[in-house]
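pinging the channel bc i need a second pair of eyes. not urgent but kinda urgent?? the chain im working w is below, pasted from the shared doc
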Amino acid sequence: MSGFWNQAFDLSGRCAVITGGAAGIGLACASLLVERGARVALLDRDPAVAEVAASLGAGHLGIVVDLRQLDQVQSSIDSVFAHFKRLDYLVNSAGVVMLDKAIDVSENAWDITLDINLKASFFVSQACAKYMLAQGSGRIVNLASQAAVIGLDRHVAYCASKAAIVGMTKVLAMEWAPHINVNAISPTIVETALGKKAWAGEVGERAKLQIPAGRFAQPDEIAGLALYLLSDAAQMITGANMVIDGGYSIQ
């Protein structure tokens, strides 16, 4: 690997916040960033998040937080900065999906979905951006979904929230340039522990038939794209929505 690439993907001394970092895509991103030298702060509602952070090695943080509570969001980001003395990266990975036909979606299900997927992503970004802008640099990756660009049965609240993430990403990228790059990743079904459970058996096999690549994505594949977007190799990429869906949405 050339000197440019070694330097671009060397995250030594950098610090990252990862929401939903205790499991799934968030944990895959955290593990890869740590492997490349970064220190990470995992924000998650799972009480085990501190243990998960400790399992990544010394010097990492795990903070239990309800991302629907903006006072907890702000205090968590303040605590991360106070601990690391800098804040370079944010990966907004926390998310929820509550499935129902549009005619039957409840106000509570709608509010929970939009609060966690969209509102929390914005206000975590805002809290982090205040520190990033002050230090003159930063990178943000928002986890959207292929549901941001296509319609899916029983996913009306989820599709709405993820489409809004893409729109939000464009505005933040525009307003916070040139100091902060903001991009989105839109995966297809990802084989996390929850993904494997939700898409097991016949329903999963039918879904794979709709994907030209013939399979679901792996958490490490999403983490790899996140690493690229956070790295110095992607300095000229901002406001993009990077679809990683095996060709699903091009049909």
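so The beta strands are 15-19, 39-44, 61-64, 89-92, 138-143, 180-187, 241-244. and The first strand starts at residue 15 and ends at 19. — does that match what u expected or am i reading it wrong
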